[in-house]
């Protein structure tokens, strides 16, 4: 989504493969999907104040430097790799970059952590699902993963575990470790760190993305191409792009017969009622670890899947110019 906004904001063009709509400047450069690898860095200079935007899973910058981390945090670990992308590698001298003329750039993680620890540096945001839904999604992801680091847990195939076992033995601790880092930093520096429920992004995408873009810009401004970018990022269109490329856009699946990383069942599952007993147990466990569960969206009736209806004054046109 942010990639589309940046490309269009800087005079680029995107074609809707399903409708034929031309979005942006018809004479502008086309979005280069062949070169797109899914980050984790994206060049955003010209649209946002900073040169690069990191999009991925990581412990909140600045939290690593806190001497007051809870004892359970120090005594536990993430159950799979990838929860803390900015602190797992020995070197970040060659970090992949998208939307740039270069392929790699260095990240100075210690300097970034020191700045965030003092409430300085680039703005930070966490878009988070409620822990039960996130665990259910990751449970399926790990079951199908080719790497033993993901499809086994403590020597046992994840496919042999019940969801309840996976939730309480693995997923909740990892969720809490990551979430608490942002919760703590947001409490210390509310102007620097923003917490955004995933449900807001799904149900009110334009409003929520405007809030995020304004946060990263450190000022309020108009984003005229955002509604078009949201339409282009709808699931069926993203799957059409992946089908043409023969790989997933997040870089996790390759080959003409590979599946999209976007699961068609997610929308239907959002509309199913959540097991209230499981939810309450999860809340109890997370609360004991200091997670503020009031920040989660626990809808009794699931909201419908992402609403990408055109605004009243925005109907499909052959192209949308800047």
Main β sheet profile: 4 strands, mixed
What count of helical segments does DSSP give? Answer: 12
Radius of gyration: 20 Å
Query: Strand share of the residues?
Result: 5-15%
Q: What is the total tally of β strands?
A: 11
Helix content: 25-40%
What class do helices, strands and sheet pairing give? Answer: alpha/beta
**What's the arrangement of strands in the largest beta sheet?**
4-3-5-6
Biased composition (Basic and acidic residues): 263-276
Organism: Reyranella humidisoli
Region (Disordered): 243-276
Protein name: Sulfotransferase domain-containing protein
Q: What can you tell me about this protein's structure?
A:
The protein is an alpha/beta fold and 322 residues long. The chain has a domain at 2-129 and 173-232 and 264-268. It is 38% helix and 11% strand. The strands form four sheets. A four-stranded mixed sheet has the order 4-3-5-6, with no helix packed on it. A hairpin with a 5-residue loop joins β5 and β6.
């Amino acid at each position: 989504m942010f990639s589309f906004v940046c490309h269009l904001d800087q005079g680029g063009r995107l074609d809707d493969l399903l409708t034929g709509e031309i979005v942006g400047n018809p004479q502008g450069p086309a979005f280069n999907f062949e070169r797109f690898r899914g980050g984790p860095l994206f060049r955003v200079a010209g649209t946002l104040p900073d040169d690069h935007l990191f999009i991925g899973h990581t412990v909140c910058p600045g939290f690593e430097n806190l001497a007051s981390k809870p004892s359970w945090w120090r005594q536990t670990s993430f159950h799979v790799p990838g929860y803390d992308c900015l602190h797992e590698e020995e070197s970040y001298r060659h970090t992949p970059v998208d939307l740039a003329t270069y392929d790699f750039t260095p990240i100075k993680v210690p300097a970034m952590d020191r700045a965030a620890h003092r409430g300085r540096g680039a703005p930070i945001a966490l878009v988070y699902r409620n822990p039960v839904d996130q665990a259910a999604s990751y449970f399926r992801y790990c079951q199908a993963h080719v790497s033993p680091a993901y499809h086994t847990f403590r020597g046992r195939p994840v496919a042999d575990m019940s969801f309840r076992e996976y939730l309480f033995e693995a997923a909740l601790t990892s969720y809490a470790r990551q979430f608490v880092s942002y919760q703590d930093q947001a409490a210390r520096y509310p102007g620097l760190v923003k917490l955004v429920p995933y449900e807001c992004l799904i149900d009110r995408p334009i409003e929520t993305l405007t809030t995020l873009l304004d946060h990263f810009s450190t000022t309020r401004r108009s984003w005229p191409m955002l509604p078009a970018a949201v339409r282009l990022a709808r699931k069926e269109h993203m799957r059409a792009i992946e089908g043409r490329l023969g790989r997933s856009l997040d870089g996790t699946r390759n080959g003409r017969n590979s599946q999209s990383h976007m699961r068609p069942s997610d929308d239907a599952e959002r509309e199913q009622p959540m097991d209230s007993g499981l939810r309450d147990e999860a809340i109890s466990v997370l609360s004991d670890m200091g997670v503020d569960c009031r920040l989660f969206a626990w809808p009794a009736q699931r909201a419908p899947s992402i609403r990408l209806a055109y605004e009243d004054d925005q109907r499909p046109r052959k192209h949308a110019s800047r």
